[in-house]
Amino acid sequence: MNVAVFSTKTYDQEFFDRFNETYRHSLTYFSAPLNRDTTNLTQGFDAVCAFVNDQIDRETIEKIAANGVKVIALRSAGFNNVDVDAAQQRGIKLFRVPAYSPMAVAEHAVALILTLNRKTHKAFNRIRENNFSLEKLLGFNLHGKAVGVIGTGQIGAAFCKIMLGFGCSVMAYDVFESDQLKNQGVVYAPFDTVLQSSDIVSLHCPVTPETHHLINTATIAKMQRGVMLINTSRGALIDTKDTIEALKSGQLGYLGIDVYEQEEALFFQDLSESIIQDELLTRLMAFPNVLVTAHQGFFTKEALEQIATTTLQNLTDFETGQPSKNEVRATG
Ligand code: NAI
Hints:
Elements: E1 2-5, H1 10-23, E2 26-29, E3 47-50, H2 58-66, E4 71-74, H3 84-89, E5 93-95, H4 102-118, H5 120-128, E6 146-150, H6 154-165, E7 169-173, H7 179-184, E8 187-188, H8 191-197, E9 200-203, H9 217-222, E10 227-231, H10 240-249, E11 252-257, H11 279-285, E12 290-292, H12 301-320, E13 327-328
Parallel strand pairs: 1-2, 1-3, 3-4, 4-5, 6-7, 6-9, 7-8, 9-10, 10-11, 11-12
Antiparallel strand pairs: 5-13
The structure holds 1,4-dihydronicotinamide adenine dinucleotide.
EC number: 1.1.1.28
Organism: Spirosoma soli
InterPro entries: D-isomer_2_OHA_DH_cat_dom, D-isomer_DH_CS, D-isomer_DH_CS1, D-isomer_DH_NAD-bd, D-LDH-like, NAD(P)-bd_dom_sf
């Protein structure tokens, strides 16, 4: 197929080109994101391939449909950035990569926890300046701590298993409970109970109308004072302003985020010579007990291989009319 690949980075091109030797689609790479302002780039293409911060709203869909695009192949699991109803109404098929490496994201959540706790990022810088003092590097044992998990799908389940391995007790909330996780020692409880009982809360549910700003002043107040909050899921799960207030008051003891509600304008770009206009993110970064990474949870070799092969297979399945479990359909 003739595919316009948006938001391309060098690593995307490297992995897609390598695996496309088998699939033989015609891939044209654009570094620009796909949104209502860049749809003119889709003229002459049958397919678009997009990533998490491409804004595929109704207007974008109308425009790409008019240009002849018949299929959107997402390189992501989440599809909250696509107007699925609009795509269906315009006869555009939507595919995603449902699980490319749940372990990659779960392990990154653990990296955030360990870094915030044992302050290895600070130790690294100190030692390079011959500062061998341990002052202010005090951490806590993970062993025996209570970890709360919101959402026990693919990534949440992988995360639960790692934390059980650390000797933590794991309590979880999900609208669907997993018997397999229960057998492994995870205890399911209502959302409020999980918040009240946990030393560390990690978010692994998708953003939906029900979970938008799930973490806000009212829900943070239910948590233990000094709790560690981790979000590798989607930025809009957290009300950032409320989180800043909770960090200022000490109610929130640590915050580790790999996602940020306004990340589209920032993440995946080198802005080291730019003036950052985002006041909330700059305020967050001023806290010593906040760690921000720029949506790199997925970023492992294994995950990029899986993303490339599944996306290329999704395009082949569409082209050859094969039914695919990776197709996303409107629910309404
Ligand atoms: P999944 O679909 O396997 O699991 C999501 C779980 O959340 C399901 O068990 C579902 O029942 C549960 N859930 C839905 N609504 C809920 C609610 N209101 N309260 C509690 N639980 C609820 O998804 P997966 O693959 O585990 O992904 C989880 C999140 O991680 C997604 O938001 C995804 O976008 C994000 N993600 C982040 C990446 C990163 O690089 N940081 C990479 C890949 C995914």
